Amino acid sequence: MRIGSVLKHSGQAVLEGALIATLVVGLMAGTAFAAKGGGGKPGGGGTTGGGTIAFRMVTDANANGSPNWGDTVTFDVTAATTRPHVRLQCSQGGALVYSAQAGMYEGYLWPWLEDMTLSSSSWTAGAADCKAQIYYFSGSKTVWGASVTFNVDA
Questions:
Q1: Are the beta carbons of 72 and 58 closer than 8 angstroms?
Q2: Are the C-beta atoms of 74 and 55 separated by less than 8 Å?
Q3: Is 64 helix (H, G, I), strand (E, B) or coil?
Q4: Sheet with 72-78, edge to edge strand ranges
Q5: How many helices and strands, by DSSP H and E, does the chain display?
Q6: How far is Cα 69 from Cα 98, in angstroms, rounded to an integer?
Q7: Hey, is 68 helix, strand or coil?
Q8: Which H helix or E strand runs over 7?
Q9: DSSP per residue over 60-117, as a string?
Q10: Tens-digit pLDDT profile for residues 128-144
Q11: How confident is the model over 41-55, as pLDDT tens digits?
Q12: How far apart are CA 54 and CA 21, in angstroms?
């Protein structure tokens, strides 16, 4: 009985380690991509998909109906897939200060990431220019869709 328990616990520990390693590699790759900046076709050799995207306020601290630093937004999307994702990037003076991405579909494993708070350790105050874009995966390709740009006030 004890051996079975040890084996079960060991298997769970290995799976947990694999998940953590996968998340760390994903974060490192995302950071490298964000540091590279955008220009030209976004991400790993994708095609263009359509769809629609609009931001929606989740929290609006000053109740002005517009995004301000520190507010939280999410996105309403339609796309030619059942699993659309959104990447949001914000810049101040051309420098990337915020980057987030999340799946915008039922069953997404990390639903709390769908609400994106407009601040970061690199973005401690002030206005920024933001762009959110739909993407999804088709085999080994990333398909990029509609985008929306908006200004965030200080």
A1: yes
A2: yes
A3: coil
A4: 52-59, 72-78, 116-117
A5: 1, 8
A6: 11
A7: strand
A8: helix 2-36
A9: -TT-SSS-BTT-EEEEEEE-SSSS-EEEEEEEETTEEEEEEEEE-STT-S-GGGGSEE
A10: 999 999 999 999 999 99
A11: 333 334 567 899 999
A12: 33
**DSSP bridge pairs for 55:** 75
Residue for token digits 């069953």? 107
* Residue bearing tokens 């929290």: 59
- CB-side neighbour CA atoms (13 Å) of 45: 3
CA torsion, ordered 38, 44, 47, 51, to nearest 10 deg? -70
Six-digit token string for 123: 């973005």
Q: Work out the number of other CB atoms within 10 angstroms of the CB of residue 7.
A: 10
Nearest C-alpha neighbor of 55 from the set 130, 122, 124: 130
- Put simply, whether the predicted model's pTM sits higher than 0.85 gets the answer no
The amino acid at 53:
I
